[in-house]
Specification:
Length: 469
């Protein structure tokens, strides 16, 4: 139930005369463990839903994978770990993360392994239109992403082996057997690579995940693996999705450049764009949100739509669904709209925006993990775009010389500054001093740093970058 202000907002946004409903529940909804990935079928026969569900519209369905077509849910064989007859607990199943169509078959992968009718399915399987098949001996740990790249089926995940092939989180299936894509090392020696997604952008392979020693986002140069653009850091940071659109690579996940938990050297918060050389922080992204996660990313009518667990984007409080038009973020839902969970995935199908997640909302309209956006152009606040350069040098603040060698002049920091703090790429404090005209930096190792201007209460009033040579 929604109470107080939220109840008023809910009523206001659904009553006739005050705008139409924002989200329309579909087909009686999907089981409470929710939808993680959605993709339209290649033959225009519906929308594929993958996740951790075992029920839809209150009845058992093929666990982990469904098709939505002509207003109905349709099972796809026996799905994940089911024999098509036994009772399944409504608590759901281990999640399915990866979903793709290739050469006429549907491929899904996730955090499950099971045996059915004498066949063992290890974290990945294929639907040929009639039945499910394993892919050799499968993987030895979970699959997080399945992509079709240059007509090749590419699988990323937390596995070490694909069948007997040492793959370390990145493998290729040719229809009959597994192959390595590249010579991927163990980025953290002795531990699996936690790869969440893969992209091939401007002739280079990119991996995103929880890659602790390399900033969670890396690329293969042809000779070495390197962090991209300085990397993305933070105690709980990770890259979840990589998406290519209009010549740029969009990186989304759990990372932030803002206090109190962000790392100032990160290029943005929640979602950023990479053009091969430079970052775009997309208006600050989810800066200011206690949880900065961006999970769902799609484009509709040339605008970028995102969803996740964030409560603020572009400086605007939000209900975890927002639109970026290239200049500003606008919230599509009022703050606190989702009383439980949020939206994990977005997709455009039949010129409508579909929303999948792990939400349960009482109505009218009632919503259970699967809905369609019907709010037209309604928004609940739009932020003002602030460019990267403006954000990095608030109030014209800069330090010089830059690059620095020994003594750095601190320029004119924002009014109210009482101290300076210098942090490295991992967010560690390397130097802190009360306000003075210059700072000695000879003790700092060569590299890129962020200088923070702090107020009397410790609040960050401004920041600027500094390179030490």
């Amino acid at each position: 139930m929604k109470h107080g202000v939220l109840a008023w907002l809910w009523t206001l946004t659904t009553l006739p005369g005050f705008g139409q409903p924002l989200l329309q529940g579909l087909g009686g909804g999907v089981g409470l463990q929710g939808v993680i990935r959605m993709e339209p079928t290649q033959q225009d026969t519906g929308l594929l839903l993958a996740g951790a569900f075992a029920y839809a519209n209150g009845v058992q369905v093929s666990p982990g994978i469904l098709r939505w077509h002509n207003g109905e849910f349709r099972s796809i064989g026996c799905g994940v770990g089911w024999d098509c007859s036994a009772y399944i607990n409504q608590g759901g199943i281990p999640p399915t993360y990866g979903l793709a169509e290739w050469n006429g078959s549907v491929y899904i992968g996730g955090e499950w392994n099971f045996t059915r009718d004498g066949e063992t399915f290890n974290y990945i399987m294929r639907w040929d239109g009639q039945q499910w098949h394993p892919l050799g001996q499968g993987l030895d740990n979970k699959v997080t992403s399945i992509r079709v790249i240059d007509d090749q089926l590419i699988v990323a995940g937390w596995f070490q082996y694909a069948d007997t092939v040492l793959a370390n989180g990145l493998a290729r299936w040719d229809g009959e057997r597994w192959h390595r894509v590249l010579d991927v090392p163990q980025f953290s020696p002795g531990d699996n690579n936690y790869v969440n997604d893969v992209a091939f952008y401007e002739g280079l392979w990119y991996l995103g995940g929880n890659l602790l020693n390399l900033g969670d986002f890396v690329r293969w140069t042809g000779t070495v693996w390197e962090p991209v653009g300085g990397g993305l850091y933070g105690t709980f940071s990770s890259v979840q999705k990589l998406n290519i659109h209009d010549g740029r690579l969009y990186v989304s996940g759990t990372f932030s450049a803002c206090p109190p938990y962000g790392v100032p050297t990160n290029p943005g918060s929640g979602i950023v764009a990479w053009d091969g050389e430079n970052w775009d922080d997309l208006g600050g992204g989810t800066c200011g949100a206690g949880v900065p996660d961006v999970m769902g990313v799609t484009w509709w009518n040339d605008d970028l739509y995102v969803s996740g667990r964030f409560s603020m984007i572009g400086g605007v409080p939000t209900g975890k669904l927002a639109r970026w038009d290239g200049e500003q973020w606008c919230s599509l839902l009022p703050p606190g709209f989702f009383s439980t969970g949020g939206a994990n995935t977005l997709v455009v199908y039949n010129d409508s925006l579909y929303v999948g997640g792990a939400f349960l909302e009482e109505g009218p309209p009632s919503l259970s993990c699967f809905a369609k956006w019907v709010g037209d152009d309604q928004t609940f606040g739009c932020g003002t775009y602030v460019g990267v350069g403006e954000r990095e040098t608030p109030l014209g603040w800069a330090v010089y010389p830059n690059p620095a060698h020994d003594l750095v002049q601190m320029g004119e920091p924002p009014r109210g500054t009482t101290s300076f703090r210098i942090v490295d790429a991992l967010g560690r404090t390397m130097l802190e001093r009360v306000v003075q005209r210059s700072l000695q930096v000879t003790g700092l190792a060569p590299g890129s740093y962020v200088v923070l201007a702090l107020g009397a209460s410790g609040a960050v009033l401004g920041r600027t970058r500094m390179v030490v040579e």
